[in-house]
Specification:
By secondary structure, this protein is α+β, with helices and mostly antiparallel strands. It has helices spanning about 25-35, 40, 70-80, and strands at about 85-90, 105-110, 115-120, 125-130, 140, 145-150. The mean pLDDT is about 85. One of its GO terms (molecular function) is transferase activity.
């Protein structure tokens, strides 16, 4: 997933082969890797931990008790069926001036709902998509530019059983 290093020293000599980047570079890399962060990517009351891939990042304990949503999270985990996941997406086509609005519907080629666009920056972002729909052609319909093609990918850091 990469590294984030905060240092008082200038330059990339601290980590051989590294490069300096700004906050925009960090968010772009994060979106490309499918790593959610904060309330834009994980809206309170909407985002579920397993759908947001937090178990893949060791962000959920299945041994600790007493946390909000524990019953649903544990039951879903032990049943082993997670129908929707937060996928990194690449957008292509004319993008609206203000970008794609969070919550915009993602559609299949036939117009069926495949999920919702969650957040992004430019031509990369995150979308909560039904797992069985990600392999086919997907798009977002915008009022300004018509159709924007959307390609979902499975990050290489995910466990191979979900790829």
């Amino acid at each position: 997933m990469g590294w984030r290093l905060l240092s008082q020293d200038e330059g990339s000599a601290l980590v051989p082969g590294s490069q300096l980047g700004d906050l925009q570079d960090y968010h772009r890399h994060r979106y490309q890797q499918g790593v959610p962060e904060g309330i834009h990517d994980l809206p309170p009351g909407v985002a579920l931990p397993l759908e947001s891939n937090l178990a893949f990042m060791n962000g959920i304990s299945f041994t600790k008790g007493c946390y909000i949503g524990q019953e649903l999270t544990a039951r879903t985990h032990h049943m082993g069926v997670i129908r929707k996941r937060l996928f990194p997406v690449q957008l292509s086509g004319p993008l609206p001036v203000g970008g794609i609005a969070p919550g915009t519907s993602v559609l299949t080629e036939s117009g069926q709902a495949a999920g919702k666009y969650r957040a992004g920056q430019g031509d990369v972002g995150l979308a909560l998509l039904r797992a069985e729909k990600v392999k086919g052609p997907l798009h977002i319909r915008t009022s300004e530019s018509g159709l924007v093609a959307l390609t979902a990918s499975v990050p290489d850091w995910w466990p191979t059983a979900t790829n």
